[in-house]
Design brief:
The complex is a heterotrimer of chains A (672), B (477) and C (105). Chain B is mainly α and 477 residues long. Chain B has helices at residues 7-12, 14-32, 40-59, 77-94, 106-125, 129-147, 153-184, 189-192, 201-217, 226-233, 236-260, 267-290, 295-314, 319-346, 362-365, 367-381, 387-401, 405-429, 446-464, and strands at residues 66-68, 73-75. In chain B, helix 7 packs across helix 10 (226-233), helix 11 (236-260) packs antiparallel against helix 14 and helix 13 (295-314) packs parallel to helix 17 (387-401). The chains are: A mainly alpha (672), B mainly alpha (477), C mainly alpha (105).
Chain lengths: 672, 477, 105
């Protein structure tokens, strides 16, 4: 069989360098952490920065196109025929690489300030660099096995970083939950690989895609579903989303890098990468598009019910990834990927901005205990304001508008009017809860000195913030030796935020101009472009309708939280809202409960296995008995094993008789 | 018919002779040496003999196939690969020998294991039915004795069960051989591949009975009933040996039969029952594992399924399939030996503690051992990045290519089921230790640790540098 | 010679099949391991008879050699079998394989 290599084969030392530098940083920081102290942070940041420069330098080879081969391919080592390993940089992976290293670099810088004084400062950076390496492995691999390895490693890195403050039981539980769900996703991808290998005898993307048209359609659907199980687990799509809000237990830079900008978008990458497969199967597209749309709106609604600033952002991440998945699912690949691109900037901006607040308020995360921060923290306000404008999709003022429009319009163009409608409604809800966050946090007067019970905070089960509260924050503060009470944000934290403001506001213009935009040119050869009949509603009109929904959302938020009367009675209002919040929202539709019963309990053992293996100190006494639902089947087989020799002999003879009947029939057939 | 026996003929069986003579030397050493000689002496001598045999065998690997003793024994790349796997199994399980096999029995146990290895090696190189039977019985007779060596009722029971059931199965197989002889007028495999025989009822019935014997030795469902009981009762090193050497030897015979001894056009119909029982085994073996509480029993069930995977590779009779089957067999050998090595380090002086309850808290008591065990179990389950994963991928690709995709599907389902069962052991190890252990005073087992470490390294190397032997065909010249 | 061949080979096959099934039935129905071993010997000897008959029919001495081999193996098996049965039932009053079922499941 001829093998189909993607990309122009060649030797690209820069590609290797940018891939391996973060690994070197991780090893360095891990091995010499105690000696390096704060220098570890600078070294690791610098290495990621150099990686970014290399990635920029790879722009030329990454976007080259020679006789149908797109991008650069560097062979690494050959396994068996069909099992070659290599790195592939084409526009899609170039985009991800730039974000991983670029935004990653800024977040590394920010972390130097944020993690200042933490006992395990060097270890944190080792994990972060390891994550960058794993993520680069994921997006640069030219085959499914390499992708799966990266996929597993980012899960591991995420596990380490969520549970970084392992003295918090909630962090440990969150880490384990994330790991369990992600391992379930890994197994999905593993089975997809099995099926792909069974069809094309190769794990290379090129081979798998070259035969995309010749798969049996049921088989292809099964492959796509298995792949999507992995994508949904990693990208927090319904019903595998429940780990993401809990993952906010990790340090805020981790949330920004892993659980907003990069790792959680791996599912989007996977679907976009496998576009040739999805394009061949309408059912698979429908499934992914629908799940994406459901996640978008479900996440947005949950975002309205949260009080923890990071959990609001987590649900908004889930919702925005829903948009991306919807985009790549329906076939609007440029749109889905564009939303990943802009989201990486504005969500990192929002997380880092919220980190400034959390840091300054001594680890307070509850927005009810904030308020009136506009004057105290004008820089954080500007950072958050630009982020909110971008995510809400206010036309031309923020990046999110352009990319979200591409997704929503794409859904319509590809013949999914319902998903189109969901996209528009979600945009309105998004504007509402993000403005709610902004108004409650920055407007009115400071409520940090108000008795928490006045704000309804003594009812954590009603408030939907089970894991947080003053006590938790205090524990974190004491335990980590992190922060020496009321630290002013160091300049090192402000610089990345300031830098991020630029793309948050402006980067969306790359997507302006329809088919002639720089964005469309960049991806012209990457994705399949089927002939589509023109959409019944033009792009400009869609933009207007969306803007209308956004305006409604902002208006409602303004009316509820920002008018003069609302501000003057803010305490009572927040208390009332906390208490009256419907249980179905505060419990996130009871998904956790259902999943726990169905799924987590049976596979929790994986978490136990790896949890105890890799970090025995983390999981202490938290191991629960897990039921083996499949055990009764085994008992059935056991019942044949009576232990009696003669019974075994009888079974043997019965088996022989069955064999002999068959052979006698065959022999009779050949010997008339 | 006269057969001229030349030096080349003796060279072909030299590895087997070396192993056999080493067995005698071990007994002699035991007779002549003082009582207080280290109990490792016999083991080390035996292992050394097998290593020498392995080196001698591998020297001939690249030379062209040689038919020795008038077709009775064939020295070829195919046979040598299997012989090497068997020797590795022999060494890997011999060095696990320790109490509860008492000191004075060690020499005997070593000699029996060496001669059992001889039997399996004979099977690997057998060119006719007679040598197959000789090797099979040599192996089985040694195993009957070995099973009963431990001084406890379950060990004796396992010997009795194995003796009766295996002899019965041998009886079926022997009768099948007699019918095959009747069909072809020859005991040589090569003479069976005569197109004229395709219409002979004797061939079909004889072949069927022959395959029954094969299925029994491979412990395929429904001929598997002996294996969980025997594996559980037998001493640990014997179980380790049985789980690999018997299967390797029998697979060699089966592969030779299937690739070289079938009249054209009969393979699909003649072998169909084997593929069916292989499919049943993949499901039943993995399901059976779920409810087990004893490591040796669990591995017995796992072995039932693993053989099903290997047969999946062979199905269709492609060259690639054979290579992948050998690769998976080798990987399986090291995974099993590694797991048994770790189990040995945990066993006490009298009892072997293979019950899973004894593994509770092992992760805390011995993190390295638990990590290695986890690795071996995950490899058996076929999780990446292990040789087990790669092996399964290879098997899948070849089975689909050979037109046996349905076996591949069964393999995937079986794999999914097995994840739970393997995870059960891992879970036990990392579970909290609630009760006091019966086996506190573990005797040190440096050889077992060395074996586990070697298995670990080999699996890693196999994963990243998979070598599937390319000169295994033609099997019969 | 011609007298010998007067008995067609199919008669031998039939007789050996009967002996073989008696052996199989013995393994299944008898509870004394010694008699089970004897039944297994019957199975082996049925095969021996077949080897001899086919060796005669094909005029090929491989059958004879095989039969000798089987006799030797059967002798070894009987010796080992007896030893195992003795160790298992050393202290038992009755020799019954149904009493030996420590391991199951």
């Amino acid at each position: 069989m001829t093998h189909h290599v993607m990309g122009v084969d060649g030797s690209y030392p820069l590609l290797l360098v940018l891939w391996l530098l973060p690994l070197a940083g991780a090893i360095l920081a891990w091995a010499f952490g105690p000696q390096l102290k704060t220098a570890a942070g600078w070294i690791c940041s610098a290495l990621v920065g150099i990686s970014f420069i290399c990635a920029v330098a790879m722009w030329g080879p990454g976007t080259q196109s020679v006789s149908g081969a797109l991008g650069a391919h560097q062979a690494l080592f050959s396994w068996l025929p069909g099992f070659d390993f290599g790195l592939l940089m084409d526009p899609l992976s170039l985009l991800w690489t730039l974000i991983i290293t670029g935004v990653g670099f800024l977040i590394h810088l920010y972390s130097i300030g944020y993690m200042d004084g933490d006992r395990a400062f060097a270890r944190f950076f080792a994990y972060m660099n390891f994550f960058v390496f794993a993520m680069l492995t994921l997006v640069l691999s030219d085959n499914f096995v390499g992708l799966l390895v990266g996929w597993g490693l980012v899960g591991l890195a995420s596990y380490f970083l969520i549970g970084f403050w392992f003295f918090k039981p909630s962090a440990v539980a969150a880490a384990r939950k994330a790991f369990v769900i992600n391992v379930a996703g890994d197994v999905g991808i593993m089975f997809a690989i099995f099926m792909i290998v069974a069809s094309v005898h190769s794990t290379a993307f090129g081979d798998a895609f070259a035969f995309a048209g010749s798969y049996n359609s049921g088989w292809l659907l099964a492959i796509c579903v298995c792949l999507f199980i992995g994508a949904a687990a990693k990208s927090a799509q319904i019903p595998l989303h429940t780990w993401l809000p809990d993952a906010m237990e990790g340090p805020t830079p981790v949330s920004a890098l892993i659980h907003a900008a990069t790792m959680v978008t791996a599912g989007v990458y996977l679907v976009a990468r496998c576009a040739p497969l999805w394009s061949q199967n309408h059912d698979a597209q429908m499934l992914v598009g629908t799940i994406g749309a459901l996640t978008a709106i479900a996440g947005a609604i949950l975002g309205c019910a949260q009080w923890d600033i990071k959990r609001i952002l987590a649900y908004s991440t889930m919702s925005q990834i829903g948009y991306m998945i919807m985009g790549v699912g329906v076939g609007a690949y440029e749109g889905g990927v564009a939303h990943f691109f802009t989201h990486a900037f504005f969500k990192a901006q929002l997380f880092l901005g919220s980190g400034l607040i959390i840091h300054a308020l001594n680890n307070e995360q509850d927005v009810r205990r904030m308020g009136g921060l506009m004057k105290k923290m004008p820089f954080a306000f500007i950072a958050m304001l630009t982020g909110v404008i971008a995510i809400s999709g206010i036309p031309f003022l923020g990046a999110g508008f352009f990319s979200k429009d591409l997704v929503i319009q794409g859904a319509l163009e590809h013949g999914h009017p319902y998903l189109y409608a969901v996209g528009i409604i979600t945009a309105g809800i998004t504007a509402y809860y993000m403005c709610r966050l902004l108004f409650v946090t920055f407007f009115g007067s400071y409520r940090g000195d108000v008795d928490p019970s006045e704000l309804g905070i003594r009812h954590p089960e009603l408030a939907g913030t089970p894991a947080h509260g003053a006590d938790q924050a205090e524990a974190e503060h004491e335990g980590s030796g992190h922060g020496q009470a009321h630290h002013a944000p160091a300049w090192i934290m402000n610089v990345p935020v300031a830098i991020l403001i630029v793309p948050t506001v402006l980067i969306g213009w790359l997507m302006f101009g329809g088919d002639n935009s720089p964005w469309a040119h960049f991806f012209a050869q990457q994705f399949p472009h089927p002939q589509l009949s023109p959409a019944p509603i033009g792009e400009g009109v869609t933009g207007l309708i969306t803007f209308g929904a956004v305006l409604v959302g902002i208006a409602v938020a303004w009316w509820r939280y920002a008018t003069a009367s609302a501000q003057s009675r803010a305490v009572e209002r927040l208390r009332g809202e906390s208490i009256r919040m419907p249980g179905i929202l505060t419990h996130a539709y009871y998904f956790d409960l259902a999943l726990d019963l169905l799924f987590v309990r049976t596979s929790q053992l994986f978490g136990t296995i790896f949890g105890r293996f890799f970090d025995p100190q983390i999981i202490d006494g938290a191991v629960r008995e897990s039921a083996f639902s499949a055990q009764w089947l085994g008992t059935l087989v056991r019942s044949f094993q009576t232990g009696l020799l003669r019974a075994y002999a009888l079974l043997l003879v019965v088996g022989v008789a069955a064999f002999m009947i068959y052979y006698a029939v065959i022999a009779g057939g050949v010997h008339p | 018919m006269t057969i001229n026996v030349t030096n080349a003929d003796w060279n072909a069986v030299a590895p087997i002779i070396i192993v056999a003579i080493t067995g005698l030397l071990v007994l002699l050493l035991d007779l002549l040496s003082p009582k207080n000689i280290s109990r490792y002496a016999a083991i080390l001598l035996g292992a050394a003999g097998m290593i020498v045999a392995g080196v001698v065998a591998s020297l001939a690997y690249w030379s062209p196939a040689y038919v020795a003793f008038g077709g009775a024994f064939i020295q070829s790349g195919f046979g040598i690969v299997f012989q090497l796997i068997i020797l590795i199994a022999g060494i890997g399980s011999l060095i696990l020998v320790r109490p509860p096999v008492q000191n004075e029995r060690i020499a005997g146990a070593t000699a029996l294991m060496l001669w059992g290895t001889c039997g399996a090696m004979l099977m690997a190189g057998a060119g006719n039915l007679m040598v197959v039977f000789l090797g099979l019985e040599l192996l089985s007779l040694a195993l009957y004795c070995l099973c009963g060596l431990a001084d406890r009722p379950s060990s004796r029971e396992s010997a009795l069960k194995y003796l009766i059931l295996s002899s019965t199965a041998s009886g079926f197989m022997l009768y099948g051989m007699a019918l095959l002889f009747g069909a072809s007028g020859s005991v040589a495999f090569a003479d069976l591949a005569n197109p004229a025989l395709a219409s002979s009822a004797l061939l079909w019935v004889g072949g069927g009975l022959f395959l029954v014997g094969i299925a029994f030795k491979l412990s395929l469902v429904p001929f598997h009933a002996w294996s969980p009981d025997v594996y559980e009762g037998a001493p640990l090193p014997v179980t380790a040996f049985m789980s690999v050497a018997t299967k390797a030897g029998t697979l060699a015979v089966f592969a030779r039969f299937m690739y070289a001894a079938l009249p054209a056009g009969t393979a699909d119909r003649l072998l169909l029952p084997i593929w069916i029982v292989a499919a049943i085994s993949m499901i039943a073996g993995n399901v059976g594992m779920l409810a087990q509480h004893d490591l040796k029993r669990l591995i017995a069930y796992s072995g039932i399924a693993q053989v099903g995977y290997i047969l999946t590779a062979l199905a269709g009779g492609t060259h690639l399939g054979l290579r992948y089957a050998i690769y998976y067999l080798a990987a399986y050998t090291f995974m099993n030996l590694g797991a048994f090595a770790i189990a040995t380090t945990m066993s006490g002086d009298r009892e072997e503690g293979s019950h899973l309850a004894n593994y509770r808290g092992y992760g805390r008591r011995n993190p390295v051992g638990a990590a290695l065990m986890t690795f071996f179990l995950l490899a058996m389950a076929g999780l990446p990045p292990t040789a087990g994963f790669l092996g399964k991928i290879l098997i899948l690709s070849s089975s689909v290519g050979a037109g046996y995709a349905w076996l591949g599907v069964v393999l995937i389902i079986g794999t999914a089921i097995s994840l739970y069962a393997y995870a059960k052991v891992v879970r036990a190890m990392y579970q909290r230790d609630e009760h006091v252990h019966a086996f506190e005073g573990h005797a040190p087992a440096p050889l077992a640790w060395a074996s586990a470490a070697i298995c670990f390294v080999v699996i890693i190397v196999m994963t990243f540098y998979p070598y599937t032997p390319s000169n295994v065909l033609p099997i019969v010249k | 010679m011609s007298q010998m061949m007067a008995v067609p080979v199919s008669y031998y096959v039939g007789l050996s099949a009967v002996i073989f099934f008696i052996g199989v039935a013995g393994v299944l129905v008898r509870r004394n391991p010694l008699i089970m071993l004897m039944s297994i010997e019957l199975m082996f000897n049925a095969a021996n008879l077949l080897f001899m008959a086919f060796a005669r029919a094909w005029l090929h001495n491989a059958g004879h050699i095989f039969a000798f081999l089987v006799i030797t193996v059967a002798a070894a098996e009987a010796a080992i079998g007896l030893a195992i049965v003795v160790t298992v039932f050393r202290s038992a009053k009755h020799v019954d394989v149904d009493d030996v079922a420590l391991m199951k499941g």
